Amino acid sequence: MSTALNWTGKDASFALGRALEQQSRLGEGPRFLRDGATYVPGSHENMLVVGDNLPGLTALLATHRGRVKVVYIDPPYNTGNALAYKDHGHDHASWLNFMTPRLMLARELMRDDGVIFIHLDDGESAWAQLLGHEIFGEENSLGTLIHQRAKGGGNSPSFVRGHDYVHVWAKAADQAGAFLTDKKAPAKLEIIDGKRMLVETDVLRAGFGRYARGQERRLMYEDILEVKGAKKLAEVDAKLASGEFMLKPWGGGKHAVVRVTPAEKASSKLYSIIKALGGQNDLEDLGLGGIFSYPKPVELVKTLVASQTFFDPEAIVLDFFAGSGTTAQAVMEANRRDGGARKFILIQTPEPLRSTNARSLVDADPDAGFPEISRLTAERIRRAARRLDPELSFTEIAVAEE
Ligand SMILES: C[S@@+](CC[C@H](N)C(=O)[O-])C[C@H]1O[C@@H](n2cnc3c(N)ncnc32)[C@H](O)[C@@H]1O
């Protein structure tokens, strides 16, 4: 017996996704506007698209089909708070109908080695996971990360709720590669020849098993031949010659063999539980606190972006539920870390900002305030760039529906 996720409107949602995708192949459908004129974006520029992401993603296909390495989205949850989405109703079926064509278009935009991170709380997590399996293929599911977002708090009657979920799919599971992060202890950072290098002193061991406290477990260079033989010595000599290994005086006239790696290239595999608190603080740091509810922490999104672009510093990153623009700042921070040139594409509707703080800023100065979320997104990008990448340029465009 087969199993399937079904809901009212499913067939029509898939048909819509296919039709929009086809429209773009035929060179029809929505296009971008900049200052009122048609705009065709370059394939490698930072962009903020202001408008509904359904025509936005469709328009993007013309120039970016198969070019996006990382998609991160934090879609409106089914709480009725997300106003743009609320217009569509708020039950599981309408959430699935809302998401289906958007995820189909996102998949078309992804590179063959691309990945998508979908960040959700308990409300839609289970539904979204099944929907994701259907769109990306269960065989391309890479699992679910846990984002620990708070130490306490939350108002659930059952638990103190401090985490949510990040479901991950690849366009093709065998092409995405490992998710990497900066290497942590036991390695040590040292400056060698003016460069930050990670130094691991524990690369050669005298034997396996437990060591008594105080007993040296490292195999000294001078003892390799006797303990491990000529082949091992030749291997180590080759790595010493290539610069991957170095010798470090270790007492008694002997030398430890240490591995040295440029700090920005030293990686470990990402752990599936990621702790990152306080997205509101990131906005406060930029003088934009208290205007937008529940921004995600930059640190989390930076970790996710970097994990799939560790050795791909020119990659394109897409977030089509941009909110306050966390993903743009995360891309800037990932670039700052390794001197990279990753680009961001953000899409955000000009949905009114309704917080008291946002309204009082508009009342005080309509030109400087933030009547719409997309205005805040743009200002956040400018302020983050001033701090992290003063040379950064980004194009603000709108979507024109035919
Ligand atoms: C949960 S928030 C994302 C917050 C974001 N991750 C951050 O850190 O600030 C979801 C955002 O999606 C936007 N949104 C909802 N429906 C949309 C649509 N159809 N097109 C574009 N943006 C939409 C909402 O206005 C809201 O800003």
From TrEMBL:
**What top-tier enzyme class does this entry carry?**
transferase
Q: Name one GO molecular function term.
A: DNA binding
> Which superkingdom does the taxonomy of this entry point to?
Bacteria
Transmembrane parts of this sequence:
none
Q: What's an example Gene Ontology biological process for this entry? A: methylation
Arranged from A to Z, the UniProt key words for this protein are: Methyltransferase, S-adenosyl-L-methionine, Transferase
Q: State which Enzyme Commission number(s) the record gives.
A: 2.1.1.72
UniProt domain DNA methylase N-4/N-6: residue ranges: 68-347
* Pfam families registered for this protein in UniProt: N6_N4_Mtase
Q: Which family does it belong to?
A: Belongs to the N(4)/N(6)-methyltransferase family.
Q: Report the protein name in the record.
A: Adenine-specific DNA-methyltransferase
